[in-house]
Amino acid sequence: MKLAVFDFDSTLMDGETIDLLAQANGSTDAVRTITKEAMGGKMDFHQSLKLRVATLKGMPLSKVHSVCENLKYNLGAKELINILKAKDYKVVVFSGGFDEGVCAGQKALGYHIHFSNTLHHKDGILTGEVGGEMMFNYSKGRMLEKIQTLLNATYENTIAIGDGANDISMFKYAKKKIAFCAKPVLREAANIIIDEKDLMQIAKHLD
After folding, report:
1. How far apart are CA 69 and CA 29, in angstroms?
2. Which of 31, 82, 87, 90 is the most buried (most CB within 10 A)?
3. DSSP readout, 131-182?
4. Contact at 8 Å (CB) between 158 and 3?
């Protein structure tokens, strides 16, 4: 079994879903500051996620869906995923972002499965709280290890692609550790670095 595991925000998707939601909700500046510190490794991911989502309290869920249905994807995203699937890779997305975004991304790009977080809501309004499978710095690595065990996939047959600090934990379990237009902290942990904002540049590194 061969695995290709992607981060979502700023890797497959062009930008950060939380930033787009904040823009629609009028809390852009607060979220942007926290995101920058978190993705640069200066703030614990769990803490930063909770702080960012708290700024969305009171936002209508319908507005969340509207934003996520209009996400823009990075150049080459769908084409690369099609190539990976043709080469018999299982394509998985781990996102510290939200179900609404990665579900829309799955429909648009065609990856096999995703794991992400859930924006809590009541009566169609966000509560400002969040929970889910990707809440901590170590979450992506732990989930990748579980999937490898389930599918009998090996380190040698696993590729991990990301851009930020919370993607580092995946790299322990992947032979090809790809930093895509990444923050310095992830570049240091990678063995393949892609600086051009075109995911098809990864195709040349496939077996």
Report:
1. 23
2. 31
3. EES--STTHHHHHHHHHHHHHT--STTEEEEE-SGGGHHHHTT-SEEEEES-
4. yes
pLDDT in tens, the chain (207 residues): 999 999 999 999 999 999 999 999 999 988 888 877 776 667 788 998 999 999 999 999 999 999 999 999 999 999 999 999 999 999 999 999 999 999 999 999 999 999 999 999 999 999 999 999 999 999 999 999 999 999 999 999 999 999 998 899 999 999 999 999 999 999 999 999 999 999 999 999 997
Show which residues are catalytic. 7, 9
Does residue 169 contact residue 138 with C-beta atoms inside 8 Å? Answer: yes
The DSSP 8-state label assigned to residue 201 in this structure reads: G
Q: Strand pairing of 113-122 and 125-132?
A: antiparallel
b/e per residue, 43-63, with b = 16+ CB within 10 A? bebbebbbbbbbbbeebeeeb
Q: Which amino acid is at 172?
A: K
- The residues, ordered by sequence, that sit 6+ positions from 29 with a Cβ below 8 Å of its Cβ are none
